[in-house]
């Protein structure tokens, strides 16, 4: 296993001998999850909040936070967090451009706008050095995404936020259970919101949750879309007179099959992501020193971790591989029997919604409908975000520490990297657009 066998792309034997579904299957569902889900159905309890409230309490306790508020999806947990932080008409939030859209877009429905900032090319998270010059008197919040499992550099971001008296919202959808310098991600900012959707590492079905220590954030989010909980128990004085109707006209309640399964998943989550962490670190340790490839993970013994390693990716350094495109590299790895690809999320600032779409009939683009200045960010304005797709690729997301199987995947990457010279001949380069959804319309 040294990466010198003939590439499968050129007729050699595949490094991955047979597909290993058990290695990747997620979430892990046992009879305990099944019993919990069936019980909800038998009790006709799908639409209540009794189980969800238990889940919220247990989830918040897990992270040592005062309040947990469950939502029907992660997108609405972010909308609730935005409103909770006071984001309103004419306000601005700062968010990285390279992320899943729900980190930012719900702001528009509150009449606010999004200002996109660069990512750090190493962490792939919001670059602390690209925030401060974007802050204006309209800036209400910074959205930090622990992107692809990697904790964002929170210390300098919290310092900036404190200095300017603005809120920090953590989007933890990729990193539930991860640590930043010994602290759980999601507990450092003013509120930590996240998806618990079936594809995420904390996977319970459609669902989301936020955690906070701030009663006002918690109660504002209840007022926005948790109608039957917006009652006489609300303590925030200015919210009390309006109880009884959801102020946003939204309904955010979580399906209780999700919360029931969530309670079971939570019991085993730390142990299960511990095994993922062991498997993923083993994979990267085995690739240490291979040219062109770098792990996307925090330094060992830094107190920071990758949580459940959601949507695992690696860094690509084409300069070390004779300029070989990541597209061609991935083609060779795929031929070895590994289903991976180049790129990550496309930068949001280039989509037409951030340029010219008039969503609400303002007679002008939504992004500037209520803004005090032109916030549109044209092509070329965020070069790192726009170029990152050529320097990253997905890697397998191992759920089990099975070294014999993982070694085969290691070999696939090693073969392609070490034999890059043979791949250069037919390298057609990267397409204009890499990664993301193919129906995402980018403005020229
Ligand atoms: C998945 C995701 C969301 C949205 O969560 P849903 O549960 O799908 O609504 C928000 N932010 C990020 C970064 C995500 O990956």
Describe what this molecule looks like in 3D.
It is a single chain. By secondary structure, the protein is α/β, with parallel strands linked by helices. It has helices spanning 21-24, 31-43, 50-62, 74-84, 154-164, 215-225, 256-286, 326-335, 366-369, 383-387, 403-418, 420-424; strands at residues 67-71, 92-96, 113-117, 139-145, 167-171, 179-180, 183-184, 191-195, 208-212, 293-295, 313-316, 392-394. It is 30% helix and 11% strand. The strands form three sheets. It has a seven-stranded mixed β-sheet with strand order 1-9-8-5-4-2-3, sandwiched between helices. A three-stranded antiparallel β-sheet has the order 10-11-12, with no helix packed on it. Helix 5 links the parallel strand 4 and strand 5 (167-171). Helix 7 (256-286) crosses helix 11 and helix 8 (326-335) packs across helix 11. It starts with 20 loop residues before the first helix and ends in a 20-residue tail after the last helix. The structure holds pyridoxal-5'-phosphate (PLP).
């Amino acid at each position: 296993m040294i990466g010198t066998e003939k590439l499968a792309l050129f007729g050699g034997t595949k490094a991955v001998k047979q597909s290993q579904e058990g290695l990747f299957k997620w979430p892990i569902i046992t009879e305990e999850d099944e019993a919990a889900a069936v019980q909800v159905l038998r009790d006709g309890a799908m639409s209540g909040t009794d189980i969800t409230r238990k889940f919220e309490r247990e989830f918040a306790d897990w992270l040592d936070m005062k309040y947990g508020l469950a939502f029907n999806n992660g997108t609405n947990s972010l909308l609730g967090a935005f409103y909770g932080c006071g984001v309103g008409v004419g306000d601005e939030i700062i968010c990285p451009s390279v992320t899943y859209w729900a980190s930012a877009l719900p702001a528009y429905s509150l009449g606010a706008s999004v200002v996109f900032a660069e990512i750090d090319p190493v962490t792939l998270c919001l670059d602390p050095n690209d925030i401060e010059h974007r802050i204006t008197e309209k800036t209400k919040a910074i959205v930090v995404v622990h992107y692809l499992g990697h904790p964002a550099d929170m210390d300098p971001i919290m310092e900036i936020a404190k200095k300017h008296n603005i809120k920090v919202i953590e989007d933890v959808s990729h990193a539930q259970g991860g640590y930043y310098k010994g602290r759980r991600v999601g507990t450092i900012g003013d509120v930590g919101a996240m998806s618990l959707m079936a594809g995420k590492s904390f996977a319970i079905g459609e669902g989301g949750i936020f955690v906070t220590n701030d009663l006002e954030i918690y109660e504002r989010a209840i007022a926005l879309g948790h109608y039957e909980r917006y009652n006489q128990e609300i303590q925030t004085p200015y919210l009390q007179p309006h109880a009884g109707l959801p102020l946003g006209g939204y309904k955010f309640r979580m399906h209780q099959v999700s919360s029931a399964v969530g309670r079971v998943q939570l019991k085993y989550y730390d142990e299960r992501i511990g095994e993922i962490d062991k498997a993923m670190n083993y994979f990267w340790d085995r690739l240490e020193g291979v040219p062109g490839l770098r792990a996307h993970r925090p330094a060992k013994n830094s107190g920071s971790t990758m949580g459940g390693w959601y949507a695992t990716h690696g860094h690509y350094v084409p300069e070390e591989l004779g300029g070989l495109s990541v597209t061609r590299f991935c083609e060779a790895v795929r031929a070895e029997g590994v289903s991976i690809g180049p790129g990550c999320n496309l930068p949001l600032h280039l989509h037409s919604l951030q340029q010219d779409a008039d969503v609400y009939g303002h007679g002008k683009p939504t992004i500037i409908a209520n803004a005090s200045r032109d916030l549109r960010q044209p092509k070329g304005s965020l070069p790192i975000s726009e170029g990152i797709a050529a320097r990253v690729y997905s890697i397998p997301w191992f759920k089990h520490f099975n070294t014999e199987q993982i070694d085969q995947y290691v070999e696939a990457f090693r073969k392609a990297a070490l034999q890059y010279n043979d791949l250069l001949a037919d390298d057609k380069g990267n397409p204009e657009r890499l990664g993301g959804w193919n129906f995402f319309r980018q403005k020229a």
